[in-house]
Write a structure and sequence with these properties.
It is a single chain. The chain is of the alpha/beta class. The chain has one domain: Rossmann fold (3-Layer(aba) Sandwich), CATH 3.40.50. Helices cover 44% and strands 13% of the residues. The protein is built from 7 helices and 5 strands, in the order βααβαβαβαβαα. Strands 2-1-3-4-5 form a 5-stranded parallel sheet, sandwiched between helices. Strand 4 (82-86), helix 5 and strand 5 (104-107) form a beta-alpha-beta unit. It is globular and about 50 Å long. The model is unreliable at 145-194 (pLDDT under 50).
Length: 194
């Protein structure tokens, strides 16, 4: 299976360096490298290439930083493993990147042996997670769509935390909590015995 890697960096020399270092993998067909030169273009490339399995991004770029791109993806509940590559290797930057959803952080100049270990580990973990999700769907009897469409494994929107708290409080007072009664009747939940 071919892995698709999106490289997001404003330095064109970095792109040439990565092309050279990834040459064996791209020529064998095991990896396809897509290029973007800032976070905004990275988001455009993701929209055009939904099969991206890993993002390698610089931290500091014009137009949109790698960190801003990560937060945008997080807000949209898009879960693509991301490795941040940056010469700004301070603990604050590392923490910011991890809080935004990065799975790893590699300092520049890049140690490609170390980076390849991280890439392989990340892609393997992502493939296992996808296989587990597919197996769960099939085990639950949902199976493939009759027309052959692949089930949607994207995260579903969650009820905002503030609404969850209000719903729990309403339930404790004996009021009807939206979604509790699948029949939609006017029955009320009895007060909890806490």
């Amino acid at each position: 299976m071919q892995s698709v890697v999106l490289l997001v960096d404003d330095d064109r020399l970095i792109h040439k360096l990565f092309e050279a270092k990834f040459k064996e993998r791209t020529q064998s067909g095991s990896l396809r490298l897509i290029h973007a030169f800032d976070g905004a273009e990275g988001l455009e490339k993701l929209a055009q290439n939904p099969d991206v399995s890993l993002i390698l991004t610089d931290f500091q770029m014009p137009v949109m930083t790698g960190l801003e791109m990560l937060y945008h993806l997080k807000e949209q509940a898009v879960e693509i493993p991301t490795i941040v590559i940056s010469s700004f290797d301070s603990m604050a930057n590392l923490r910011s990147a991890m809080n935004a959803g990065a799975v790893d952080f590699a300092p520049k100049p890049v140690d490609f042996d170390d980076l390849f270990v991280s890439i392989d580990r990340t892609l393997e973990a992502a493939a296992k997670q996808l296989a587990t999700q597919k197996a769960r769907v099939l085990a639950e009897g949902l199976g493939p769509h009759p027309r052959g469409a692949v089930p949607d494994f994207s995260p579903k929107p969650q009820i905002p935390v503030q609404q969850q708290g209000r719903a729990r409080a309403a339930g404790e007072r004996g009021a009807r909590v939206p979604g509790d009664d699948p029949l939609g009747s006017d029955r009320h939940r009895p007060p909890s015995m806490a």
